[in-house]
Input
Amino acid sequence: MVKRVNPRNIKIHQAYEIDQAACSVGVSIPTIRGWIKKGLPVMRAQKPFLIIGADLREYIENARKRAKAPLQANQLYCLRCREARTPMGDMVDYLPISPTRGRLVGLCSECEGTLNRFCSRSALPGLANIFDIDCKGQGEA
Output
């Protein structure tokens, strides 16, 4: 499971060594080294390498923005492909989570993996124009 990193734990006016950065963010040292390989700026003029707190915070916030997957009206998120996909045959199931919210579940048209999308119960009539929705569980619509 992916751990959510809180960029607010980082002091922007402080320089961190790799192990200090890992400890302050709550990830492992190899994770920080992986971020450096992916583009996290470091001061390499001296050893040990130093990471500016502002750069670390900006890198984490930008990585979080890149990870978001905006969905169009006819798409759900495929957990296997890790992309927005249309469900096979436009058929989805609505699984209620609470009285007002639920989850649309379908099969990916590419890999046949599970597609997911959270939605409100009030959005179901509009989504019914796009998908063939089967309501599961209590209080069916």
Residues 76-135 form one domain. The chain has four helices and eight strands.
